[in-house]
């Protein structure tokens, strides 16, 4: 019900006559009217205002007359009203010509109509319109708040907002999953999310004839989501849409905040259950642990896996760089994926037990969790179909993360059980008390010769390439070959013997595992 230029021109007692501009200009909104004769008037007026003038300073200057029309048209004014019979008998031809060329509305104000009558009519109409719009906005806000009583309040609020604004309204999760939609046109969702993801802030943009506005929905201590409103009509009154959309934002944030309080207790319960399962205390016992796990959807009708998340770089004590801080974002990812899960901390790592059909989308999760220059690693263990297999899947997942860390490349990475090196898995699956004496029997003598042990590590790391190993140690190749012969003398075996190389490789892996486990070096 906002005032338009057509409403103003149709007011018969004012006697206004449109002399430039077509019928399309009649729907232009009018936000005010003001009489002004100064040079450069646009900075003194607001967008969608009607400028009224008699042309006092324009006599004898067609160039200035054209320039004024061009300035007012480009400045976003609704129209230009020219009073005749005071300075000019008729509207100057240059002004009329420039207005027609630009399709800018120019109308005549007869001598009998004081400018104050035009301004008064606009002000009275706007006051009546403002009261109407205020009442409508309050009514819509009440209608939205009633949606809180529905079984699914978020769906109700989005649907009601779409119907009242005659728009498409979409609610996106943190990763772009469509959580609620109203007004149809679900085909817009992917394209709208692409815009939001590329510029994660409140914005307005055009999309295939749709005018789209996006707004963040960010409850305190919660996960950010996005509300998008798309319409094919520009003329919606902002006095209604702004407060109504803001109300919808706050209601959605309120719902998330209430849920967040209950979710905190649920997260603690999930972490407690996961800790019991990782320790192997649950087994296949159908007791309280099994019952509570099944209540959360982990029925093992589909296989589950343990997934371990860690930062690629070294963790600084007290520095807050451990992977546990990733939990809110990981919770959002798993909820969006619709997978039954448990999540909890384990030292400086974050551990999840996830049930799903097939291997989890580790790489997608890793890239979603890596941000602000912090790279995340993820390892997934073997698939299991009961709680009794969870500890073994955990060992696999930790082996996968350790294998990724040995790359010494601090960038995101993911590795499933099926991709773990056989040697690393054999070593990692062995009990430390059995590993230590075997490792000492292979490496004990070599580790007493620090340079020779360093040479062996470089040689293995270079895939037995003498040139690469020598370069890594800053040695001449002949010097490296001399050290290799000394290693062969200590071992009493040739380094060209495949079983010898296999034993050395496995022993070095096991030695690294023992050092990571309790700080001791076998045979050292």
Features of this protein?
524 residues; alpha/beta; Udp-n-acetylmuramoylalanyl-d-glutamate--2,6- Diaminopimelate Ligase, Chain: A, domain 1; Beta-Lactamase; Alpha-Beta Plaits; five-stranded mixed beta sheet; five-stranded antiparallel beta sheet; 17 helices; 15 strands; elongated; disordered C terminus
Which helices and strands appear, and what pairs or packs with what?
Layout (H helix, E strand, L loop, with lengths): L4 H5 L7 E4 L11 E4 L13 E5 L8 H13 L4 E5 L9 H9 L4 E4 L5 H32 L6 H13 L2 E5 L5 E5 L6 H10 L4 E5 L2 E8 L7 E7 L6 H41 L9 H8 L8 E8 L15 H11 L3 E6 L2 E7 L6 H8 L6 E5 L9 H16 L7 E4 L5 H7 L3 H16 L2 H12 L4 H8 L3 H15 L6 H21 L6
Parallel strand pairs: 2-3, 3-4, 4-5, 14-15
Antiparallel strand pairs: 1-5, 6-7, 6-10, 8-9, 9-10, 11-13, 11-14, 12-13
Helix pairs in contact: 2-3, 4-5, 4-7, 5-7, 12-17, 13-17, 14-15, 14-16, 15-16
**Strand composition percent:** 15-25%
Span between N and C termini?
86 Å
What is the CATH H-level superfamily of the largest domain? Reverse transcriptase/Diguanylate cyclase domain
The count of domains is: 4
Class by helix and strand content? alpha/beta
Estimated helix fraction: 40-55%
What do we call the CATH topology of the largest domain?
Answer: Alpha-Beta Plaits
């Amino acid at each position: 019900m906002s005032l338009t230029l057509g409403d103003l021109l149709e007011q018969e007692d004012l006697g206004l006559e449109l002399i430039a501009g077509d019928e399309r200009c009649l729907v232009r909104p009018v936000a005010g009217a003001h009489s002004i004769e100064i040079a450069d008037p646009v900075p003194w007026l607001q967008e969608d205002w009607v400028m009224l003038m008699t042309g006092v300073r324009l006599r004898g200057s067609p160039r200035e007359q054209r320039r004024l029309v061009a300035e007012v048209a480009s400045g976003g004014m609704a129209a230009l009203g020219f009073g005749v019979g005071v300075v000019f008998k008729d509207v100057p031809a240059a002004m009329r010509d420039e207005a027609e060329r630009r399709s800018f509305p120019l109308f005549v104000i007869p001598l009998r109509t004081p400018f104050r009558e035009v301004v008064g009519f606009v002000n009275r109409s706007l006051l009546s319109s403002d009261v109407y719009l205020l009442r409508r906005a309050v009514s819509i806000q009440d209608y939205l708040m009633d949606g809180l009583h529905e079984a699914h309040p978020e769906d109700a609020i989005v649907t009601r907002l779409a119907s009242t604004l005659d728009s498409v309204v979409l609610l996106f999760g943190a990763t772009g999953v469509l959580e609620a939609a109203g007004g149809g046109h679900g085909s817009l969702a992917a394209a709208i999310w692409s815009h939001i993801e590329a510029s994660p802030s409140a914005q307005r943009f055009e999309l295939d004839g749709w005018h789209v506005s996006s707004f963040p929905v960010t409850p305190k201590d919660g996960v950010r989501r996005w509300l998008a409103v798309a319409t094919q009509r520009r003329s919606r009154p902002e006095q209604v849409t702004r407060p109504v959309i803001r109300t919808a934002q706050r209601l959605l944030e309120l719902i998330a905040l209430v849920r967040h309080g209950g979710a905190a207790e649920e997260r603690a319960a999930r972490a407690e259950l996961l800790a019991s399962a990782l320790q192997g205390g649950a087994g296949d016992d159908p007791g309280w642990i099994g019952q509570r796990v099944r209540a959360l959807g982990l029925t093992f009708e589909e296989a589950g896996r343990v997934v371990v998340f860690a930062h690629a770089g070294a963790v600084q004590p007290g520095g807050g760089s451990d992977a546990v801080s990733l939990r809110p974002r990981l919770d959002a990812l798993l909820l969006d994926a619709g997978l039954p899960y448990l999540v909890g901390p384990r030292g400086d790592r974050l551990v999840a037990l996830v049930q799903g059909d097939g291997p989890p989308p580790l790489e997608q999760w890793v890239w979603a969790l890596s941000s602000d220059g912090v790279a995340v690693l993820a390892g997934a263990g073997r698939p299991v179909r009961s709680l009794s297999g969870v500890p073994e899947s955990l060992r696999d997942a930790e082996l996968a993360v350790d294998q990724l860390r040995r790359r010494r490349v601090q960038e995101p990475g993911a590795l499933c059980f099926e991709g773990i090196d056989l040697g690393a898995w054999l070593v990692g699956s062995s009990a430390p008390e059995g590993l230590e004496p075997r490792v000492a029997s292979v490496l004990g003598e070599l580790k007493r010769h620090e340079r020779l042990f360093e040479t062996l590590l470089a040689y293995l790391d270079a895939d037995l390439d003498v040139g690469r190993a020598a370069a890594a140690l800053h040695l001449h190749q002949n010097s490296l070959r001399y050290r290799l012969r000394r290693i062969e003398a200590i071992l009493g075996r040739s380094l060209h013997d495949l079983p010898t190389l296999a034993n050395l490789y496995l022993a070095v892996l096991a030695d690294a595992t023992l050092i990571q486990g309790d700080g001791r070096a076998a045979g050292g």
